[in-house]
């Protein structure tokens, strides 16, 4: 049974073949750059770069659109609130409500930034299987404990999900139909509690099994990554592009300043 | 016959909060080269016995000798776990690494082997169990039977001198069961199997013991 699918991680495109460490570094730098960008010029250029990466990764466009829809449904709420609440010059009035020019510009900028970051993450990070991601992070001097937390979570989320489905099935078989009543709430509380207890027991047994195999607190990784020529080229080109973004950002005066900017 | 591999003397063990102990004044011996089946009703202490031997549980009184040495503290059991392998009932408890190769190499790495040696040992062990193509398989995506065999590989990769198997046949199909019987028959180390399956035990062990509160009674 597959609970979490990683539809983007399988593929043979250039982006898929790049060393995950390089992709992680570039994606992180890019995300920070985009998050602090204040100008439309830099943001649009960033979006273009992200789309370029996405094209190179040759992912299923419908699946990408699906993911973007999820993110943009959150941003939709910003469009409802920000133009109304952001102080500035009013361009449209409707009763007591006032849409400000600055509010609209700011919301537009946020929309572009978020999409650029998500697209870049889909192209660069989602193309790495989670398992490899964990190993690559530990190779990038990321705290070992966090890497193993990620890998363990990923490993046992399947087992827990299976346990959850078994319990739900057991409930259904005995005629359980969720409704708005105390019985339903109580049953769901039992379900949650049971999952918690079981995962605790599971953790205990996994730890015991690890002890039995001589575990004494140190993890060793067998995975070896090596930089290829294409990785060096990718890193060099990305760094150039990111520098260009910084230049673009510093040349153009900020269109909008944040509330504190 | 040599000195016993495992000797439990006058063990008393009760789970916290339980009204009556699982073992009371329990004594048990396993001699070198022996293949022993442990049987008995649910809850009679078969798994508890294995966990006591591995030091996952500690008796309230009595002494445990393994390979002729008395083991008491966690540090003593660290040595035991280098030489005694325990196959858990549920392979999902045992396999925690992302890929099969890493999981099989986990034990040898803990034994201080270099990554290269560990990989070699892991590959050899997997080849012995007929799991050649499994290296890069993801552990949670294996079938139940495959998980069991891989879990066995993770234990055997540590080259134990004694193997403890806790209900190895649960959820196995006929073919995997035969494979397991074949593997066990080819082992040249002592082992102890907890099982409810008579037929399986008839193929794999010479003696069967009933686990009781104070002793193991040979049938």
Give a verbal description of the structure.
The complex is a heterodimer of chains A (about 260) and B (about 220). Chain A is mainly alpha-helical and about 260 residues long. Chain A folds into two domains: about 15-135 and about 225-250, no CATH class; about 140-210. In chain A, about 70% of the residues lie in helices and about 5% in strands. Chain A has helices spanning about 15, 20-35, 40-55, 60-85, 100-125, 130-140, 145-175, 180-210, 230-250; strands spanning about 90-95, 95-100. A two-stranded antiparallel sheet of chain A has the order 1-2. In chain A, helix 2 runs antiparallel to helix 5. The radius of gyration of chain A is 24 Å and the shape is flat. The model of chain A has no long low-confidence stretch (mean pLDDT about 85). Chain B is of the alpha/beta class and about 220 residues long. Chain B has one domain (about 5-220): P-loop containing nucleotide triphosphate hydrolases (Rossmann fold), CATH 3.40.50. Helix content of chain B is about 35%, strand content about 25%. Chain B has eight helices and ten strands. Chain B has helices at about 45-55, 75-85, 90-95, 100-110, 115-130, 145-155, 175-185, 200-205; strands at about 5-15, 25-30, 35-40, 60-65, 70, 85, 160-165, 190-195, 205-210, 215-219. Chain B has a six-stranded mixed beta sheet, sandwiched between helices. Chain B has a four-stranded antiparallel beta sheet with strand order 2-1-4-5. In chain B, helix 4 (about 100-110) packs across helix 5 (about 115-130) and helix 4 packs parallel to helix 6 (about 145-155). The longest helix of chain B has 14 residues, at about 115-130. Chain B is globular and about 50 Å long. Chains A and B meet through helix 6, helix 7 and helix 8 of A and helix 2, helix 3, helix 4 and helix 5 of B.
């Amino acid at each position: 049974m597959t609970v979490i699918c990683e539809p983007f991680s399988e593929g043979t495109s250039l982006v898929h073949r790049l060393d995950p460490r390089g992709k992680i570094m570039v994606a992180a730098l890019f995300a920070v750059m985009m998050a602090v960008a204040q100008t439309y010029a830099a943001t649009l250029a960033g979006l273009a770069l992200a789309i370029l990466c996405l094209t190179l990764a040759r992912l299923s466009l419908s699946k990408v659109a699906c993911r973007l829809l999820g993110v943009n449904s959150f941003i939709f709420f910003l469009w409802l609130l920000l133009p109304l609440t952001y102080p500035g010059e009013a361009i449209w009035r409707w009763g007591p409500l006032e849409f400000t020019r600055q509010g609209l510009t700011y919301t537009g900028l946020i929309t572009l930034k978020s999409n650029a970051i998500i697209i870049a993450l889909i192209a660069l990070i989602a193309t790495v299987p989670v398992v490899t991601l964990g190993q690559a992070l530990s190779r990038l001097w990321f705290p070992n404990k966090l890497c193993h937390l990620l890998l363990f979570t990923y490993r046992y989320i399947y087992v827990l999900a299976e346990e959850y489905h078994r319990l739900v099935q057991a409930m259904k078989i005995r005629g359980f139909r969720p409704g708005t009543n105390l019985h339903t709430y109580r049953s769901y509380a039992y379900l949650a509690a049971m999952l918690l207890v079981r995962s605790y027991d599971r953790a205990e047994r996994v730890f015991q099994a690890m002890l039995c195999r001589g575990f004494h607190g140190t993890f060793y990784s067998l995975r070896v990554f090596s930089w290829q020529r294409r990785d060096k080229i990718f890193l060099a080109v990305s760094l150039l592009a990111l520098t260009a973004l910084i230049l673009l950002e510093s040349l153009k005066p900020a269109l909008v300043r944040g509330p504190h900017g | 016959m040599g000195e016993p591999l495992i000797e439990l003397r006058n063990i008393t063990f009760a789970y916290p909060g339980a009204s009556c102990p699982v073992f009371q004044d329990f004594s048990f011996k396993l001699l070198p080269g022996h293949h022993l089946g442990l049987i008995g009703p649910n809850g009679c202490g078969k798994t508890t016995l294995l966990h006591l031997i591995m030091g996952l549980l500690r008796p309230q009184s009595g002494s445990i000798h393994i390979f002729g040495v008395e083991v008491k503290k966690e540090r003593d059991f660290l040595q035991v776990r280098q030489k005694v392998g325990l196959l858990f009932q549920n392979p999902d408890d045992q396999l925690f690494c992302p890929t099969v190769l890493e999981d099989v190499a986990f034990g040898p790495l803990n034994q201080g082997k270099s990554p290269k040696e560990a990989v070699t040992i892991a590959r050899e062990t997997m080849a012995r169990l007929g799991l050649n193509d499994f290296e890069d398989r993801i552990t949670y995506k294996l079938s139940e039977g495959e998980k069991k065999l891989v879990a066995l590989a993770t234990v055997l990769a540590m080259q134990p001198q004694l193997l403890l198997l806790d209900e190895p046949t649960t959820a196995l199909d006929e073919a995997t069961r035969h494979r397991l019987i074949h593997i066990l028959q080819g082992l040249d180390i002592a082992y102890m199997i907890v099982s409810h399956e008579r037929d399986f035990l008839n193929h794999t062990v010479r003696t069967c013991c009933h686990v009781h509160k104070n002793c193991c009674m040979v049938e």
